[in-house]
């Protein structure tokens, strides 16, 4: 999934829906996706299929590589990714091949044959307790390498180098991105396991100039805290209240104390799934069944997440911002807790 901004419409490879105005309020801009009465089976994503990227002479787009959480995939976070794209960022949403995605596949070529075979990789459950860290740590470093490979591909695209799309699901010419991407303003973002992936990726690849950790799960790096000293770039952690344990926050605080450029905020009355698409795809009963029901309104939780992230990126990779986002944050300051106080 490759997402990029056209200022007015937003384009997301893999989805076909209507384009909407950037100035439309969030609740109406997202149509049924942000409807107070969701209608399963009639969900729309406000974007255009295979639309060519908007060319603004002299204004290349910053890029964001997004890493999904445990059991997620590249399409689990369309709400967040679309909002970031609508602010003028090219978003590349990954699907990791470390057996942490719900399911994914790759193509394998056979010697002497032109046709490639599709190989499926299904989610592998890992028992908690002894031995879990070693597996998760291995996975998080593979994920970090995949983030760097995605950034390599984006660099090739903007340099006009040939990139082969083995999926062949899109008619969009990839050479349309030549000269349009600003790799010097690259950042990484991720949810849960993806948040830990962002830390590992920034430690290993300094091309990532900033990071966003959405309710970051710190276990994959819990016994490798030495890596934190290598993360010199600014990073914002946006935590959901119910998910964060004292042990998780203890490890996270070791990242925060490395530099004043590391910020942590917690949204009160929120749950882990508030930062993915699940709360917007289910009715109240299903949200309670899946653990996606929160005291804080689900729309407010997502809007605060995207506004906080947008404000942070505007400082560190120079993306445009709007006073209405700052106003929205200030209006909900009572549910925003800064720093880590419970450790």
UniProtKB/TrEMBL annotation:
GO molecular function, one term: 1-alkyl-2-acetylglycerophosphocholine esterase activity
Lineage top rank: taxon: Eukaryota
Organism this protein belongs to: Oedothorax gibbosus
EC number: 3.1.1.47
A GO biological process held by the record: lipid catabolic process
Alphabetic keyword roster: Hydrolase, Lipid degradation, Lipid metabolism
Pfam families xrefs: PAF-AH_p_II
The UniProt record lists the keyword Cell membrane: no
Active site per database record: 192 (nucleophile), 215 (charge relay system), 272 (charge relay system)
Record protein name field: 1-alkyl-2-acetylglycerophosphocholine esterase
Keyword Protein biosynthesis listed: no
Enzyme class name: hydrolase
SUPFAM superfamilies: alpha/beta-Hydrolases
């Amino acid at each position: 999934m490759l997402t990029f901004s056209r200022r007015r419409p937003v384009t997301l490879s893999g989805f076909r829906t209507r384009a909407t105005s950037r100035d439309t309020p969030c609740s109406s801009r997202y149509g049924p996706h942000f409807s107070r009465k969701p209608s399963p089976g009639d969900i729309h994503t406000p974007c255009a299929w295979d639309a060519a990227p908007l060319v603004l002479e002299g204004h290349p787009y910053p890029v964001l590589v997004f890493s999904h959480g445990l059991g997620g995939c590249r399409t689990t976070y369309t709400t967040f990714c679309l909002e970031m794209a609508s602010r003028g960022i090219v978003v590349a949403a990954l699907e990791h091949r470390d057996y942490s995605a719900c399911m994914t596949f790759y193509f394998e070529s056979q010697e002497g044959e032109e046709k490639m075979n599709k190989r499926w990789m299904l989610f592998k459950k890992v028992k908690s307790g002894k031995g879990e860290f070693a597996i998760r740590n291995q996975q998080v470093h593979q994920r970090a390498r995949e983030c760097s490979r995605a950034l390599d591909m984006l660099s090739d695209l903007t340099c006009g180098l040939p990139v082969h799309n083995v999926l062949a699901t899109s008619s969009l010419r990839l050479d349309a991105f030549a000269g349009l991407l600003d790799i010097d303003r690259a950042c990484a973002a991720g949810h849960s396991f993806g948040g830990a992936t962002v830390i590992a990726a920034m430690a290993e690849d300094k091309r990532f100039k900033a990071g966003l950790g959405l309710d970051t799960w710190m276990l994959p790096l819990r016994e490798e805290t030495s890596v934190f000293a290598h993360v010199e770039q600014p990073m914002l952690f946006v935590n959901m209240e119910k998910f964060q344990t004292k042990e998780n926050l203890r490890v996270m605080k070791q990242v925060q104390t490395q530099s004043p450029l590391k910020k942590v905020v917690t949204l009160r009355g929120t749950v882990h799934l508030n930062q993915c698409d699940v709360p917007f795809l289910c009715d109240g009963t299903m949200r309670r069944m899946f653990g996606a029901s929160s005291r804080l309104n689900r729309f407010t939780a997502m809007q605060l997440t995207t506004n906080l992230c947008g404000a942070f990126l505007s400082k560190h990779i120079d993306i445009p911002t709007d006073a209405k986002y700052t106003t929205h944050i200030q209006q909900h300051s009572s549910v925003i807790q800064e720093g880590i106080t419970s450790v």
